[in-house]
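Dear colleague,

Thank you for sharing your sequence with our group. We've completed the structure prediction you requested, and as agreed, I am returning the results in plain text so they can be pasted directly into your records. Please verify that the sequence below matches your submission; if there's any discrepancy, let me know and we will rerun it promptly.
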Amino acid sequence: MGAPQGAVVVGVTDGPDARRALPWAAAEADRRQAPLHLLHAIAPGMGAGAPRTGEQRWLRARADRLISEAAEFVSKRCAGPLSTDVVESAAEPALVAASSRALMVVVGARGHSLGYHVLVGSASVHLAQYARAPVVTVREQADPTSRQVVVGADGSAGSAAALRFAFESARAHRLPLLVLHGWQDPALERGDETAAALLDRAVAAWATRYPEVPAIAKAVPGRADRLLVDASAHARLVVVGARGRTAGAEVRLGPVSEAVLHHARCPVAIAR
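Please find the predicted structure tokens below.
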């Protein structure tokens, strides 16, 4: 069974961050009135018709249990359509395939087999590079009382996607939006008027489309990644594009986006 068109797809496993991803995805699907699709991937077997080993039977039983428990959990939190899938595949390609029809893909920052010294799991990094829908990596919020969405903008196509996703998220959650632009361009060092003008142009069109979202835009001299990571300490969600102005066309995940993905202190959305 594939993911329904426009679904919030969530990767299901049993790690601490993965367990945070499940209620986050359910709440998001409910707020956006979107289908919710639960996906669990297990290691491929030995081919069609091949007998299953004891380990493979155990993995399948575990997968069925995880999906069943997850479905029961979210059914009490999400009123919309719910579907589930267990696939024999590595998690990364399974989630990338599901992303082609998804509204967004949601995963935990770390999988169950990763130690706490690992900042973000391989599935999160792979999805951030190759998914065809926005990817949300869920981790514990440093400030659970935070009431704002933060988005990075630099005037690039990637930041336009980030602004769209951020405005939609702020509207869905009825939260204010903080738009940040960190600049180091020597041409802007005489003052921040040019940077502010660039930011205003990027934000104006989206603010017109989402007049119900209170949005504040700030252009600040300094490194964009540090600016966004610092802001994440008091954010409900941080949104960045997959790559910004400084990343070449061959780069799938720009340096600012990668730094935010690894070091942010709240859930991170990589928009595209």
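Summary note from our side: DSSP finds eight helices and ten strands in the chain.

Kind regards,
the structure core
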